[in-house]
Amino acid sequence: MDSGDHFQLWVYGLILVAALLIAWIRDARKPRPCHHGVIGPCRECHAAAEGYKAAAEQIARRARFEFEWERLRREEIKRLSQARLRSSEAYFAMEPREFEDAIMKVFRKLGYRVSQTAFVGDGGKDAIAWKDNKKFVIECKRYGTRSATGRRDLQILLAAKHDAEADSAIFVSTGRFTAPAVAYAEENDIEYFNRDGFPDLINRAYGNPEDYTMAKTICLECGRESYLPLSDDGPASGNAVHDGTWHEVKTTISIAQLRYPDLDQNAPWCPDHQVPMRRVNGYRGEFWGCPEYPQCKKTGGSAARPAEVTEAQSKARRAELLQVYNGMSEVLREKWRKRIEPDTMQHLLLMKHTEEDIAAYIAARYMQGH
Predict the structure, then answer these.
(1) What is the pLDDT of residues 122-143, one digit of tens each?
(2) For residues 170 and 201, what is the distance between their CA atoms, to the nearest angstrom?
(3) Model-level pTM?
(4) How many domains are contained in the chain?
(5) What proportion of the chain, given as a percentage, has pLDDT over 70?
(6) What is the pLDDT of residue 277?
(7) Is the bond preceding 294 in cis, omega lying within 30 degrees of 0?
(8) Is 216 domain-assigned?
(9) Is residue 228 a contact partner of residue 250, using CB atoms and an 8 Å limit?
(10) Range 286-293 contact pairs with CB under 8 angstroms and sequence separation of 24 or more
(11) What are the residue ranges of helices labelled H in the chain?
(12) What is the residue range of 338's domain?
C-alpha cells in the first residue's frame, strides 16, 4: 500500500470521527423527557420548582425572624425588668435579697452613691450611702402584710448609724410600723418608709409605674409584632390574626425572669435557666456565671473587658474617690490618715505615689467604712 492509500484512509477516519462527534452533540442537545414523561416545559415540574423556591425563601425568612425574635426577647427582658422596678406592687413579691438589691437601685436612681454591706452579718445596716456631702446608713426589710417593724429594729439601725459615724439613717419596709416605732423614728430623726409611704419612694425614683405584664414578641411566620400577657408559671404563647390568617406567637419570658434591669446584651445565656449570665471575678480573671449559683454552676467562658473599657472604669472610679475626698473635712481626712497602717503609708510613699493617689486611697478606705 503506497502513501496515497494511507492518506486516503486517514481522511476517511477523520470524517468518521467527525460524524460520530456531530451525532453525539445532536443527541446531547436533544430535549429529554422529565420524570413525568414530558418533553419540553412541564407544568408539574415548574410547580415543584416554584414550591422548592418558596420553601427556601420561607426558611430564610424564618431564620431572620428567629434572629430578630431572640434580639427582641433580650430587649424585652431588660425593658420589663426596669418597668417592674417602677411598680411598687412588684417589690412585695420579691425575695429578701432581691428586694435589698432593688432598693439600692432606687437610692442610686435618687442620686445616692451606695455601697452595700454583706447580706449576712451586716451589723444592722444593708448599705452605706453618700449624698450632698452627707453619709447615710440604710436598712430595708421585705415584710408581709401581717408583719410590723418595731422599736427594736430602729434601735439597731440607730446603733449602726453611730458606729458608721453617719449623719442620718433611713429605714425602708414593705410592712407597717408600730406606734412606738413611729415615735422613736421621729424622736431620733430616722427617715422611714412603711407600706403606705413605700410607693412614694418608688415613684420619686422612677416616675409613674408602667405595665410589665405584657411582653412584645414577633410572629415567626410573618414577622409581625404582637403582645402576650406574662405569667409566673412559665413561657406564654397565644394566637394572632395576621392578614386574615391565624398564627401562633410565643415568648419564653415569664415574670420570674424579670430580675435583670442591668442586663448586658452581650452576656451569654444559661441554657438551663434561660437567664442572662453575670460577670464573676475568679482567681483566673472574670468569667460569665449563672446568677442562680450555687443551684446552677453553668459558665459561659471568659468575660474579660477590653483594655479601653477597664481604663475608662478606673478613671471614673478615681474621679469618684477624689470627689468623696474633697467632700471630707480636714479633721475627717486627718483621722482616716491616722487609721492607715504605717507600713501601708510608707509603701505608698516609697512607690512614689502622688498626693492624689493617697487621697483616693483614703477615700476608698473611708467608703468601705473601715
Answers:
(1) 667 888 899 988 999 999 888 8
(2) 12
(3) 0.49
(4) 2
(5) 77
(6) 82
(7) yes
(8) no
(9) yes
(10) 291/259, 291/260
(11) 3-29, 43-85, 88-91, 96-109, 151-163, 179-187, 198-206, 307-327, 330-339, 342-350, 355-368
(12) 307-368
Cell 427617715 belongs to residue: 191
Between CA 154 and CA 161 the distance in angstroms is 10
Q: Show the cell assigned to 191.
A: 427617715
Which of 206, 227, 248 terminates a domain? The answer is: 206
Task: Note whether 269 and 254 are within 8 A (CB).
Answer: no
Which grid coordinates belong to 82?
426596669
* Residue labelled with grid coordinates 415569664: 254
Residue 162 lies in a domain: yes
Q: Please state, as a whole number, how many other Cβ atoms lie within 10 Å of the Cβ of residue 258.
A: 23
- In the structure, how many helices (H) and strands (E) does the chain have? 11, 14
In a domain, 113, yes or no: yes
Task: Give the per-residue pLDDT at 96.
Answer: 82
Which element (helix H / strand E) includes 299?
strand 299-302
Map grid coordinates 456565671 to a residue: 289
Positions of the chain with pLDDT under 50: 370
Decide if 122 is inside a domain. Answer: yes
Nearest one of 131, 127, 107 to 116, comparing CA atoms:
127
C-alpha angle 350/353/354, rounded to 5°?
135
Write down which residue in 160, 177, 206 finishes a domain: 206
